[in-house]
Input
Amino acid sequence: MIHRLHRVLLVAALLLPWLNTALADQLDDIRKKGEIVIGVLGTDEPNSFVDPKTRGYIGYEVDLATAIAKKIGVKPVFRQMAVAARIPELQQGRVDLLAASLTHNKEREAQIDFSLTHFITGSKVLVVKRSGVQKLSDLAGRKVLTVKGGTQEPNLKRAVPTAQVVTFENTQQAFQTLRQGKGVGYVNDESSLYSDIGKLGPQASEYVLLPENLNFEPLALGIRKGEKALKAIVDATLREMEANGDAERLYERWWGQQSRLKFAKRTFKFDSDQVAQ
Amino acid sequence: MSFAEVVDTYWLYFLVGQYPQGPLGGLALTIVLASLGLLLALPAGLALGLARLSPWAALRWPVTGLIHLVRAVPLLLVIFWVYFFLPSITGVKTSQFSTMLMALVVYDAVYLAEIVRAGVQGLPRVQVEGARSLGLSWLAAMRLVLLPQALRNMLPSLVSQFVATIKATSLGYIIGLSELAFVTTQVNTQVFIYPTQLYLILGLSYFVLCFSLTRVAFWLERRLAPVSGQHPKLPARQPA
Output
């Protein structure tokens, strides 16, 4: 028995170095493969979504990632993933880069590294007009719906600890539940909320957006921890795009006046990878 | 956007996903996944079932353990583990498709194994005794006498399990596999205002797949049925 146990331990010890270790520099691997695998959500307009005509991925983050691939000189390959699977996929090296509407926050810094912030949004709450909710504190004790595994749920709990939060696999299910009258509010990134409201048509008048921001959400690309060379080239690409005006053009195309969302002028720049506590 | 326009815009995506520019998806992926799953799970299930019945403890015990373990874990977790946990031990990263296929085959084979065991053990004891006393080895008795009878009786349970497998492919969403349910959700997120219609189409698609399988199985069952009723009757025992 003891013998057998020893053998198991020995095998485990031999396998251990293989656990979660990148043998070489990831940027070298990417160059060697000739392709960079980019994790996207594929369900989040305008960051990454499916173009019905070409059936390929398009969007703001898709364009950013494509620019990075071009800079490295490799082919971008997009792989879609569930919200909750994003960070494990990156940590295991199944994708080289995350461009998946990823919020950069302090908690996540322990797990992965982030590029320069490429977008700033905030979570807001969309409420049913009839419910009489007019400010965040009115949500106390009421049922509020959102997506599982993102930052929306903890942010709401921080703002309104007594709200009853119900979570769903994707934002669409949460919003559908709101439309069926099974909750009074729905939390999402401001950007996505505008896009959701836009699709409602005349029914949009049944809902109001609460003015308060639950938080400030800087979005960034996710990079595996410690991959300095890859992070350097990603950040350099973003800085270059800021300098030559591509960053501004992409914003206008996907978020600004040329888009369906009609966001106001851009108020941030690709210049920092630091976030507030 | 009217619903007709939605259908016109997304039908191809619904059927094949991003293929040929990207990976196969949608209805086609679900069909490929389910068919391969069934084809591989049947022999695997038979093998596991026989191992579970086998007179050799060295074979029976580990397989019994495996069956108890896998049956007690939700398929969703099996998929998650195969995808995220196995690679960190083995160092081999399987793709989304092969992960899902492996998880389906293992999970399915374990259930099939128990159906096989029930089928064989449900046969009258005299079948084994008769076969063995004719001098057939255990394997030959299984192959020539027991399994042909047992498989026929197992058919309804096998079909139920196969139908469950077709529907289980939808769990691939957890690892981002763009099978039918995932693609429908994706289209729904994009279009936003026709959830009822889209999910009705999704439900109908699964119904058509599963119902066709049960019809084929029904036809097979009729063909395999012995001409006159059930098993050949044993002669009544003569009073001594």
Observations:
- Chain A has a mean pLDDT of 87.
- The longest helix of chain A spans residues 228-244.
- DSSP finds ten helices and 13 strands in chain A.
